[in-house]
Amino acid sequence: MREAVIFFADTHINGKTALCPPNIIDDDGNEIRQNLIQEWLWYTWNKCIEDVKRITKKYYRTVVFDGDVIDLDAKNRSGQMVSRNPATILRMTEPILKPIIDFADRSFFVRGTEAHVGRSAWLEEAIADKYGGEPDKEFGRNCWWHLRAEFSGVKFDVAHHFSTGNLPYTYPNGMVRLIQATKLNYMEWNEIPPDVIVRGHRHKYIDTGTTFSTRGVSLPCWQFSNAYLYRIGKENNMPHIGAVIFLCKDGEYELIPLRYKPKRNPIWKRK
Length: 271
Prior knowledge:
This protein is an alpha/beta fold. About 30% of the residues lie in helices and about 20% in strands. A hairpin with a 2-residue loop joins strand 6 and strand 7. It is globular.
């Protein structure tokens, strides 16, 4: 069978610098309007969906949401949240996620960071339950901490968290370390290492290519810089926006990254 495995990560729905649908009504009847960042992300998200549909038209479609689908700000550290009401946040997910769920043949949800999605990622469990995510039957839950799966003969190891370097020229280092550590871990279990390791969390697209027998891919995100990134000196950081598609058949695959480059604010000049 030919199968397209489509990965999205770090949409951070409810963040003021992240994905937000238009014309959402909050729990008190107020209309939530998009800011300029959210307008661009919403337009680009819908373009991405159309690109995914076109590329995967003749394939069985599996969609994987690799963590931090929403942002609850569970530690109450930020003022850049659209709403503090979980009911409103859940309502915001429907215009964003449902069009993808509707065209996918199946979907998986992987748990993200507790600081964003609550203790034990409870809100992502609720989202996976709401949208019928493929369950982790061994533990009786709808959302996965660690997804090890084989799609059309291609073995994937999927989780949300990993570490990278913090500078543009050190980003890939963490993925290379993860590849080697994962291969050793699999050997301890007397298992064959995966063909592909996929992670989110770092908001950077990284692809180690086929240099190693196991390929490492870090997923792009759907969020612009927030106050935290300015605090740690990342004011020139460019968000990597997009998704990643694997076209799988008979143990072979083709990787197709979908990248969308945002415009930067112009340099101020006196008129």
